[in-house]
Amino acid sequence: MLPVIALVGRPNVGKSTLFNRLTKSRDALVANYAGLTRDRKYGEADIDGHKLLLIDTGGISGGEEGIDAAMAEQSMLAIEEADIVLFLVDSRAGLTPADEMIAKRLRIRSKPTLLVANKVDGVNPDIALAPFYELGIGELFPTTATHGRGVRTLMQRVVEGLPEQAVEEEAEGATGIKIGIVGRPNVGKSTLVNRLLGEDRVVVYDEPGTTRDSVYINYERDEKPYTLIDTAGIRRRKNIKESVEKFSIVKTLQAVEDANVVVLVIDAREGLVDQDMHLMGSVIQAGRALVVALNKWDGLEAEHRDYVKAELERRLRFVDFADVHFISALHGTGVGHLYESIEAAYQSATDKLSTNHLTRILQWAVSEHQPPLVHGHRIKLRYAHAGGQNPPVIVIHGNQTEQVPSHYVRYLEKTFRKALELQGTPVKIEFRTGS
Ligand code: GDP
Ligand code: GDP
């Protein structure tokens, strides 16, 4: 499970600055789930190969009213969902009543918390930091988020403090393709999960093991093993009519990270809304294989169907590699066919790609359409090899590769995708200069 780190503190202490610094270093899966979660921002950081999910909370200052109170409530929710809390204070401003109030709330929750004294640039740390020890949080890490000073030490400590992960996953005994069922509230995830497991050809194993809130369900279909990651937590509810559990972005993003193939469920009656697009963006940025299920297709007017199809055409151009299914989870229509796309996407995402084959495709691509000149020198792309699976990573070696423009990267992506007949998975192109 992707560990969750929440950045907490009163406004203006440097939370977003730290968040941006930590997530920018890679293709950050930064998404602002406006509306659903108010001001919380989610992003992925990579600390020495440890992937972390960061939540930047809106900020708490105490005594909030109206919308601010709601925001503070969201910050507290983020704390609930976090493995480790980074509590930021401002070294220049000194200790404030708001800091004390936040510290109190954190102590009640007894979450592992690291105190981050930010903005230590231009202060005498011996004097400026002393008052913060009164907060009783324990370890204190001085940082300058704007320049990155102290951030590495802080994050190393974060990584050390994470719960053991690898062993746990082994014990869960997940087998076969891991399918994540994700989508906004009410799109029909629970109905789909029940439908998928209720099919004649399906044998559901053990009582599902739970990891945080998503439920992992092992089953077999036509004697092939699968694991369903159920973010709706249907199997935990005693009764399907029971009120739907709180939708959690953290839960969803963790399921995306942990899945091999994500089935993104969309409500055809509502059409594509921004939250669907955000989720889709997160799946792609995580590099996961994707199958899109347009649910509630039953009983729709022809006119509405045409409208939804046109919307898909227009807005899903960036995921044109993903199969789209029009289904009714309620009636079961089209549900079985999802497996064909899931299998194909998984195959594509995990195919072994030989250096020989990749290099031949690269050479062909370059001969068809040369990389541009940079300062009078032609960018040279020499050979390619596989650098990873799910998503397939294609590593291209050459000269001046840091200058390859994004349109050319897209051209290469497209060419590889076509030549390798990849279906349902994003492809990641990486460059290395020199041999
Ligand atoms: P947030 O409201 O907690 O998210 O705070 P921001 O990240 O927006 O930062 C508030 C202000 O403090 C911005 O103007 C930042 O540039 C500045 N800031 C953030 N970190 C530092 C730091 O380490 N040193 C200094 N001098 N300024 C900082
Ligand atoms: P979740 O929040 O994404 O898990 O959504 P649920 O599975 O709880 O479904 C939300 C509502 O949509 C329920 O009232 C379902 O009966 C209904 N629903 C789900 N799938 C379909 C479908 O294919 N067609 C129609 N008409 N309704 C559906």
UniProtKB/TrEMBL annotation:
Q: Which one Pfam family would you cite for this protein? A: MMR_HSR1
GO-annotated molecular function: GTP binding; hydrolase activity; ribosome binding
- For whether the record's keyword set contains Hydrolase, the answer is yes
The cross-references to InterPro entries, in alphabetical order and at most eight, read: G_ENGA, GTP-bd, GTPase_Der, KH_dom-like, KH_dom-like_a/b, P-loop_NTPase, Small_GTP-bd
PROSITE patterns assigned to the protein according to its UniProt record, in alphabetical order: G_ENGA (PS51712)
Picking any one GO biological process from the record gives: ribosome biogenesis
Alphabetically ordered keywords of this record: GTP-binding, Hydrolase, Nucleotide-binding, Repeat, Ribosome biogenesis
Database matches in NCBIfam families: GTPase_EngA, small_GTP
Q: Tell me its family.
A: Belongs to the TRAFAC class TrmE-Era-EngA-EngB-Septin-like GTPase superfamily. EngA (Der) GTPase family.
Its annotated function is as follows: GTPase that plays an essential role in the late steps of ribosome biogenesis.
- Assembly, per entry: Associates with the 50S ribosomal subunit.
The protein's name is: GTPase Der
User: What is the primary gene name for this protein?
Assistant: der
